[in-house]
Structure formats: structure tokens, C-alpha cells
Design a protein that fits this description.
CATH topology of the largest domain: Butyryl-CoA Dehydrogenase, subunit A, domain 3
Keywords: FAD, Flavoprotein, Oxidoreductase
GO molecular function: acyl-CoA dehydrogenase activity; flavin adenine dinucleotide binding
Cofactor: FAD
Largest sheet: 4 strands, mixed
Number of domains: 3
Catalytic activity: a 2,3-saturated acyl-CoA + A = a 2,3-dehydroacyl-CoA + AH2
Strand content: 5-15%
InterPro entries: Acyl-CoA_DH_CS, Acyl-CoA_Oxase/DH_mid-dom, Acyl-CoA_Oxase/DH_mid-dom_sf, AcylCo_DH-like_C, AcylCo_DH/oxidase_C, AcylCoA_DH/ox_N, AcylCoA_DH/ox_N_sf, AcylCoA_DH/oxidase_NM_dom_sf
Structural class: alpha+beta
Shape: globular
Radius of gyration: 21 Å
Number of helices: 10
Oligomer: single chain
CATH architecture of the largest domain: Up-down Bundle
């Protein structure tokens, strides 16, 4: 065996990285600080991603999408997050919101909702958490009651990424209160459905360009055929979805950390103290070495998890995806928090100011340890699914 490519992305993946990096640096990076400062949606990023078919690369070709594999999706998110974490939530959350339809939806649902997503005519969000149901998602109170050929939904969903911007929402709701998790079903709700409204945008530490709002469902009546899968299978679909999409959060963490490391490397070469660049000092070199080591370990774990995600999607059932998805998300996000904190330290007082991007990256990194399951929950998931 002459070409040992087992631990190396393909040439196509490398070409994709180069293309996304060039696009991100030209069309997304110039607005990143402004988007954060103003707390506004990164419309420039959405326009650029849609124009280049990078907003929802995971959608299968049969529904008008690019049909990108899980690793390609990771690379897109990683490269966008390298310059703007808020913007990386466009491809990431489009996958999160639509994957339940891909995994469990009827053919009619797939055609109806994946095609507009692939075209860039709509975005997709994911509604699982509630004010009193976070880590204990099965304790949700949102209800869906059957009424003839319709379901009527009532409840509140909290921490919904891109709420108000997305046209479509995958909503988990209780259809049989006696069965706890096995009494939860999944539905597609449209922004235009009567009774759907949104709370004020949350005032957050980071990812300020990605709106996070509550979604209110007040007697929202939808056709019964908008149920995703069979009644009572919604929670299982939600958990299966997270097995795949936690890897995209790992990708976001990788990108944020890479952006911070790249900036810090450039800075220590230019900043001089005691007559020479501070990058010549061993203490600084040790910090950079540790940052790069953690980042590369996180990347290898994330890419391995993405490969497992792809094999599971292709029908393989023996991949320990639940463990590897949780491990990648947990390790990469912890690494990103450490790397961005150290990057701020390397710039000293400058790192603490908004004139430089590292304080934004540090703030953005924090959420990757929290959403799609806190890292404490990830450790519980790993312990229960040891390979």
C-alpha cells in the first residue's frame, strides 16, 4: 500500500477548504467585528454562502442540494467559524434543523422542505429546549393534540438559534404525556403558521450575530402530515440528530480556535519587547506549542467522528457514533476555550480590547461548551456509551 490516506482528508476536501477559506476571508471576515458589535444578523455571510451553495451543503442531491458528506460539512463550518462564529451557525443550524426530516421524514416532507433549503430560499431551526427543559429535554411541556387531520401545538421553546430568521422549525412536542420520552413527536412548523411568534433576542456574551429567541406556539394548527416520522418517535429522532450534529459544534470550535491561533502566531512575530520579537521567548513558544497540540488533537477526533457520521448515514450501525459525537464536541469545545484564552493572554492588554478579534473569539468559544448539550452532559453520554 503506497498511499496511506487513512488519516488524511481527500484532495477534494482540501480543495473545498481552500475555496471556503478564500470566500470567508473575502466576504465574511470584513463584517465579523461589526456584526458582533451591532448584534445583527450576518446577512452578508448568508448572501455569500447562498451564492456559493455553502449554506446547507448537507442536503442530498436528490432534493437539489450539494450532497456533501459529513466531513465536507465540518470543513465548511470550520472555515467560516475561523473568521466569524456567528456566520458559521448558518450552515450548522441548517443541518441541525433539517436533519430530523432527512433521518425520519416522509418523502413528501423531504421534497417540500429540503428543496427550498437547498436553494437558499429558507433556513431551518431546531426547537427542543424549553424554559424548564434543558438538559432534561424529555421533561418538555409543549403539547401537540390531534384534531382530525391536524395537530394543534401549544408551548414555548427557548434558546432557538436563528429564530425569527428561519422559515422552518423542527419542533418537538408531547403527544402522549404518559409515555415521557416515548410520548414525544416531531413536527415541521413554518414561520408563517398562524399562532407562531418570537420573543426578544437574547442579550448574549458571544455569537451576537446569530439571533437566539424564544419561539411561542399559541394554538398553532398544522396538517397531520407535517409530523416527522411516526407518533412517539420524535425524541429518538432528536437524539439521533444530535449524534450527528454535535460534530458540527466541534467543527465550529475548531474554527474559532484556529482563527485565534493564527492571529496570535502573527502577532508574536511582530510584537517586540526587550529588543526582539516576543515569539523568540521560550515561554511564548511553549504556549503556542500547547495551543497547536490541543487544536490538532481536537481536529483529528472531530474528523474521525465525522467519518463515523458518514458511515452511519450510509447504513453502518457499528460506529459508536454517540460516543464519538459527544467526545468530539466536548474535547474540541474545551480546547477552543483554552486556546482562545491563551491567545488573548499572548496579546496582553491588546488582547483584551475590541480593536483586536481575540476577545470576540474567546467570548464566542464559550457557547460551544454549552449548546447541543453541556460538556457535563457530554461526559455522561460518553460514560454510558463507552466503546
Amino acid at each position: 500500500m503506497n498511499d496511506f490516506d487513512l488519516y488524511r482528508p481527500s484532495e477534494e476536501h482540501d480543495m473545498l477548504r481552500d475555496a471556503v477559506r478564500s470566500l470567508a476571508e473575502a466576504k465574511i471576515a470584513p463584517y465579523a467585528a461589526e456584526v458582533d458589535e451591532e448584534g445583527r444578523f450576518p446577512q452578508e455571510a448568508l448572501d455569500a454562502l447562498v451564492a456559493n451553495d455553502l449554506h446547507a451543503v448537507h442536503v442530498p442531491e436528490s432534493y437539489g442540494g450539494s450532497g456533501a458528506d459529513a466531513l465536507a460539512t465540518v470543513i465548511v463550518i470550520e472555515e467560516v467559524a475561523r473568521v466569524c462564529a456567528s456566520s458559521s451557525l448558518i450552515p450548522a443550524v441548517n443541518k441541525l434543523g433539517s436533519l430530523p426530516v432527512i433521518l425520519s421524514g416522509s418523502e413528501e416532507l423531504k421534497k417540500k422542505y429540503l428543496a427550498p433549503l437547498a436553494k437558499g430560499d429558507a433556513m431551518f431551526s431546531y426547537c427542543l429546549s424549553e424554559p424548564d427543559a434543558g438538559s432534561d429535554a424529555a421533561g418538555m411541556k409543549t403539547k401537540a393534540v390531534r384534531d382530525g387531520d391536524t395537530y394543534v401545538l401549544n408551548g414555548v421553546k427557548r434558546w432557538i438559534t436563528n429564530a425569527g430568521v428561519s422559515e422552518y422549525y423542527t419542533v418537538m412536542a408531547v403527544t402522549d404525556p404518559e409515555k415521557r420520552s416515548k410520548g414525544i413527536s416531531a413536527f415541521v412548523v413554518e414561520k408563517s403558521d398562524e399562532g407562531v411568534s418570537f420573543g426578544a433576542p437574547e442579550k448574549k456574551l458571544g455569537i451576537k450575530g446569530s439571533p437566539t429567541r424564544e419561539v411561542y406556539l399559541d394554538n398553532v394548527r398544522i396538517p397531520a402530515d407535517r409530523m416527522i416520522g411516526a407518533e412517539g418517535t420524535g425524541f429518538a429522532t432528536a437524539m439521533k440528530t444530535l449524534d450527528h450534529t454535535r460534530i458540527t459544534i466541534a467543527a465550529q470550535a475548531l474554527g474559532i480556535a484556529q482563527g485565534a491561533l493564527d492571529y496570535a502566531k502573527g502577532y508574536v512575530k511582530e510584537r517586540k519587547q526587550f529588543g526582539k520579537p516576543i515569539g523568540d521567548f521560550q515561554g511564548i513558544q511553549f504556549m503556542l506549542a500547547d495551543m497547536a497540540m490541543k487544536l490538532e488533537a481536537a481536529r483529528q477526533l472531530t474528523y474521525a467522528a465525522a467519518a463515523r457520521s458518514e458511515r452511519v448515514s450510509a447504513g453502518s450501525g457499528k460506529e459508536d457514533l454517540t460516543f464519538f459525537g459527544a467526545a468530539a464536541k466536548c474535547y474540541a469545545s474545551d480546547a477552543a476555550m483554552e486556546i482562545t484564552t491563551d491567545a488573548v493572554q499572548l496579546l496582553g492588554g491588546y488582547g483584551y480590547t475590541r480593536d483586536y478579534p481575540l476577545e470576540r473569539m474567546m467570548r464566542d468559544a464559550k457557547i460551544t461548551q454549552i449548546y447541543e448539550g453541556t460538556n457535563q452532559v457530554q461526559r455522561i453520554v460518553m460514560a454510558r456509551n463507552l466503546p
